[in-house]
Amino acid sequence: MSDKYTPKPEDKFTFGLWTVGNVGRDPFGEPVRKVLTPAEIVYLLGDVGAYGVNFHDNDLIPIDATAAEAAAIKKAFRQALDDTGLVVPMATTNLFSDPAFKDGAFTANDPKVRAYALQKTMHAIDLGVEFGAKIYVFWGGREGTETDAGKNPLDAGKRFQDALNFLCEYVLDQGYDLKLALEAKPNEPRGDIYLATTGAMLGFIETLAHSEMVGVNPEVAHEQMAGLNFLHHVAQAWDMGKLFHIDLNDQAFGRYDQDFRFGAVNLKSAFFLVKFLEDVGYAGSRHFDAHAYRTEDYEGVKDFARGCMRNYLILKEKAARWNQDAEIQALLQDILADDGSTDAFKGKYTPAKAAALKAASFDRIALGKRGLSYEKLDQLTLELLMGIR
Ligand code: GCO
Ligand code: MN
Ligand code: MN
Description:
By secondary structure, the protein is an alpha/beta fold. It is built from 15 helices and ten strands.
């Protein structure tokens, strides 16, 4: 079935090998789907109309593969990319699965682990660039603690900073056209992960030697796990020129990292997010870092992947409709009305402005009495989303 919600390459919808390739293992149960090869995953993504595929080094090449095995996998993967027209916009490193990283990678207490993590990441950057990646994601799943007895957070921060400074220099030294995107998560798999929110990452980036090369990769589920408003973090990142990539998925508040299909739980939040990305003209990948329910076979995985993209496109259409809805726009005009009476106080500070403002009089009681019509606006938004406007 092809309709106006059928994805096109310009929509920039991407999935990780680890997302549609997720076999449904969880802490309580064994895999429910067979392992697909990276090439098979690319064909599946080609079938559902995705634009690109991203990978961790070890999604593509197992950590213990021989050189000959690695070469064969790369050849089959490249062939699948050529056959389907899919591209690889982003790559990343698995610094969390191997037991060597049980105490973190760049922030581990053991200097040998830290050196190994740097080495592994340089190889993984080479691999990503070989397949065309322009964005390199850092998600520090194990960069944290269960107890603060054994690790000083100041030491951990310094180590993370040193690692990123080292890797920025590496990228520059190789002449790679690559930007780095840091992804925050509050916990899971560690009890607490350092730099737990996108806001914390944005602050941290400014401490780096090449901060211009480093931005963020915020994920819906991660900010929601922390009980925060995802859109506000995305907006801050955008405003700072740091929204290099985005991980779309969904989840119920207060839960573990559920990685549900985009839009599956918080439809209104998903709507405002899509509206924001479209309104500001975000041009990066719309990456779905999510996976199908454990109840699904690979047909269900395709339903999942199609659903992510379809929901995005439907919400994009709703956003355009919201922007054109006469009643909604008239309400907004009222809400944002400005009679010009404070123009003299606006803009940059001057002593004269400050003095005039201090002397001005305001009708505080009238200001407090004014109703803002947000109930009506929100209800109109809901009715639009529910399909009756
Ligand atoms: C998670 C993370 C990861 C990262 C991935 C790419 O919660 O498991 O979201 O899926 O996004 O490792 O960096
Ligand atoms: Mn996640
Ligand atoms: Mn993610």
